[in-house]
Amino acid sequence: MVVCLVAVALAFAAASPASAQSLPRVELRPEASRAFNHYIRERESSILSKRIQGGRFLWADDTADRHDRVMSGAIVVEPGRDRGVVEVRGGMLNDWIGAAFLPGATLSRVLATIQNYDNHKQLYRPEVVDSRTLERNGNNYKVRLRLVKKKIITVVLNTDHDITYFPVDATRQYSKSRTTRVAEVEDAGEPGERELTPGDDHGLLWNLDTFWRFLERDGGVWIECEAISLTRGIPVGLGWLITPIVRELPKESLTQTLEGTRRALR
């Protein structure tokens, strides 16, 4: 669930035949964090005004073609803005949105499945290898995940998330998740494994926010996720290799997350 866009953050690793440790380490700059926070505020305001308080709850309903494709069983994933990648000073923003339809499901069953964070290590393998709920207070969850992405090389991230669910009515809910801590792990699983200092690492993931919507309708449940992450920029000299992968891996990851959710509800 909260892992929707981890592939964006790991695009650099996938692009290079060397290890992540061979990439130059980079410091998270304040201007990159400010750009991410500003972007998130704008997106959240837009979602609240257009989707939650407005007349069209689902992104899938914006066009007849998108609605029909999702309704027919396709998982539709598209850039949330421009081509899904926004360059900012000191980093990159990655914004993708996707939708799926779960026939025969109910809202209560979907939420119960997704909110069982202790089981995400089963639900979303192989990208989530460990998961647990640290704390629950009503509709608010604090969750810890260990994320792994393996494509030529393996990168491991320890991440903490603050997730809140907001009931709208008997058939609709939405949720907001934000990372409160991201730490890259070196030598994961070995006796000497260690975390790099957050913000002083290889920049594969510095921040990640996700926005989910759930609607029970048409004999099932519609689910949508928009995931926005902050990563390092593209290293000089590697753009020809990395840029195409940055544009493809987020879509693959989000598709896999939605497919994993749908598979669990069958």
Largest sheet: 10 strands, antiparallel
Q: Number of helical runs?
A: 7
Question: Over all CA atoms, what is the radius of gyration?
Answer: 18 Å
Let me know the number of strands: 12
Structure, briefly:
This protein is of the alpha+beta class and 266 residues long.
Tell me about this structure.
- With 266 residues, the chain is α+β, with helices and mostly antiparallel strands.
- The protein has one domain (6-16, 24-115, 148-265).
- It contains seven helices and twelve strands.
- The strands form two sheets. Strands 2, 3, 4, 5, 6, 7, 8, 9, 11 and 12 form a ten-stranded antiparallel sheet that branches. It has a two-stranded antiparallel sheet with strand order 1-10.
- The relative contact order is 0.25.
Name the descriptors.
266 residues; alpha+beta; ten-stranded antiparallel β-sheet; two-stranded antiparallel ribbon; globular
Q: How is this fold's topology laid out?
A:
Blueprint: H1 6-9, H2 11-15, E1 26-27, H3 30-52, H4 64-71, E2 76-79, E3 85-88, E4 91-103, H5 107-114, H6 120-123, E5 128-137, E6 140-151, E7 153-167, E8 172-186, E9 194-195, E10 200-201, E11 207-217, E12 220-231, H7 239-265
Antiparallel strand pairs: 1-10, 2-4, 3-4, 4-12, 5-6, 6-7, 7-8, 8-9, 8-11, 11-12
